Structures are given as C-alpha cells and as structure tokens.
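With this grant's support, we have settled on a layout for protein records. A representative record follows, to show the layout.
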Amino acid sequence: MIGEYRIEGRRAAEIAASVERAVGSGELELGQLLPPMRELAAELEVNPNTVASAYRILRERGVIETAGRRGSRVRSKPATTGREYARMDVPEGARDVVSGNPDPALLPSLARAFAAAAEQADRSPVLYGDALVEPELARLARADLDADGVPDGPLAVASGSLDAIERVLAAHLKPGDTVAVEDPGWGSLLDLVPALGLRTAPVGVDDEGPRPGEVRRALAASARALIVTDRAQNPTGAAVTPTRARALRAALGDHPDTLLIEDDHGHGIVDLPLHPLAGVTRHWAFVRSVAKAYGPDLRLAVLTGDQVTVDRVSGRHRLGPGWVSRITQRAVVRLWSDGAHDPRAVAEAYRERRDLLIGALADRGIEAHGRSGMNVWIPVPDETAAVSRLLHAGWAVSPGARFRMAAPPGIRVTISTLTPDETATLADAIAKALGPASARTYA
C-alpha cells in the first residue's frame, strides 16, 4: 500500500488507528504522502466517506495534515512521535543542566502548608457543589494581578499552565484552526497544539519577546490565536519589554477577534516587571503557574480572562475533574502568605547564575541569551555535534530540536543549580564544543 506498510480496517476508527500505529512505530515516515481517499477506499473495499472520516480523525489528532489537491501526508512532527524523543537522558556521571527544573534549595517547604490546609479541611470539608476556587486564593491572586496591570476578569484554577492553555484553546478553536506560537518555544506546547488538531504558525523570538512583524504576518494569514510567554520564556529567557508590548498590542488591535493567551509561569522567580498584552482582543486568557516558584508537583495555575472564556473553561472543567483540590489551593494560600518564599531573593539567585554563565561565554566569544528565568539559550552551528561533545565532556544539555520549528539550531542550558565554581568549566566545555563557528544568532 505505502511502501512496505498496508493500511487496514473496515471502519473509520480502525483505519485511523492503523495509520496512527504505523506513524508511531516508524513504518510510515514523517512527511509520507498517504493514498488518495478514493484509492484507499477501493483498496479496502469501503465507502470513500469512511476513509474521509478516518482522515478527519487523524487530522484532529494532529497525525496528518491535508493540503487540498496536494493530498494528505503524515505531519513532519505529529503528536504520536512528539518532542519527547528529543529529550536528553542524563547518563550516570554527567552533570545535569538539561532538565528545566527549579533549584530544590530555592523551593519552600510544603509540610506546614499542607498540614494547615488539611486541618482546615477537617474543620470545614469541601463537598460537591462548593465553590471551585478557594476565596482567599482568589483574593490574593487578584491583588497580584491588579498590581501587575492585568485587566479585571473572573478567576479559575487549573492543573498547571499547560492544562489551562489546553482548556482555553479547546474553548474557542476547532480542529484545523491555526495558532501562532513562539519559535523557539516551549516544547510541550509545540506538541500540544497539533495534538488538539490545530496548526502551528511559528513566530520568531528575540530577547524582548515575539517579533511584531512576524506576529502581524501570522495574524494576517488567519491565525486565530496567539500564545505569548511574558517572562522567563522557555528556552530563550526572553521577557516582553514596554516597547515590545506596545508593538504587540498594536498588532493585536488590528485583529481584535484573535484569542490571546499569555503565560506568566515565571511569576515569583523573575525580577523584571510584567508588561501584559491583555485587554486589546475580545477573548483573552492570562495564566500564572506556581510550579517554578513553589514546586512542579503542586500542579496549580491561576487563570483569568474575559467572562466568556473563563465561563467556558470552568463549565467544561466541572464536567471532567470538577475542580482542582481545595486542599492544594489552601496550601498555596499558606505558601503565598507565610513569607517562607522570597521572590526577590529567588529571582536574584537565578539572575546571578544566568549572568555568570552568559558573561563567561561572552569572554570566550560565544553569544548566549537569557534575560530572565532559569535557562540560557546558545545558538550553535550543529546541535547534534554540540550535545555529543558536551556529553563527552560530562555535561548533559538540551538539544534545541525540542524547542524549534523554523528557528536556527541552538542548545538550552538550565542554570538553576549551576554553582559559580562550575560556570567557568562549563563555559570552557561549550567553547571547545562549538569552536570558532559559534558566533551565530537565533535571530
């Protein structure tokens, strides 16, 4: 049928599953052209409408894409293969600067917060039909959002940033719609969008955030949504500046029907002010996670937005998990209130570690980027060679392929646990791995 592989099935779900299995196993290659629907229908002795339904299922799952008369083909990066395959496993003995995790030493203790939340739950249990959002959490979150200039709107709570973003996209978009995303950008998000059956439109990023010209082109080409990381952008460390915010708001103002999603996962670990974009478009969402500042396992993010967006997200949430544990919400309230976490001290620690590495690389003639957050992005001529040489030298770094679509190659270094004594050694290893060809830019 296609090379050595034969698509099978009598029903649409069976045909779709046959193709998806083959993509996952590698029997159907990325970019492989699939048979025309009528041809496959004749081969399988089924109605062409059955094959059309199977292809629609595969498009909605992000496995294939259709380009009119040019036919349907396996997506170059389908959801079934994902960017997890580009993840670097850290071998024994190698120094891990790949994981993207916060420094455990900078996370607050959870024991007292959860003990207090559990005691409160014993006194006042949360039952079916109770409020989805802990009132004190809503009050504290809203006060912080007001202080940062985020427009007023109802609040919801989700199980982390990615959960919130997925729910917002699902609330407004349908399979086949296009989402403008940062490139380089968050690998998990770049996997999520096609998994929802949506198309990605890459938008280039520099140190100040998404480039306005590329945002305008994406929106003019009918992208229905734009996702922006306000600070601590992963992997480049970009942070939206006042000038860039004005330019992006102007671009969005020309396309007021765009769904705007802002991710501020860096709240609590950055020392750069927020410059939000919300308030220009009819539908918007602003997401703020506690993962980086208080611990990834808390699985909690606060979401605000326009009334329609938050109502849709909350309504759908009720039909699934119902709510994010109020015990967890109450524990987060304690963490926010007890003063054990000092955002300024944490931000300063990460800034010092970033600046040390970026400065050491600059001394060796190597360009690197990282205005905020826990990562440094280093343009390289050859990712595979750079990662391999660094691993041989005892350093496990992340290949840029996990974060890129059309952007030039690079590697990501997580500096969260990097010590001053290690910085010069790592910079030397990077310089040796890259050689004189390292004077490049991801711009």
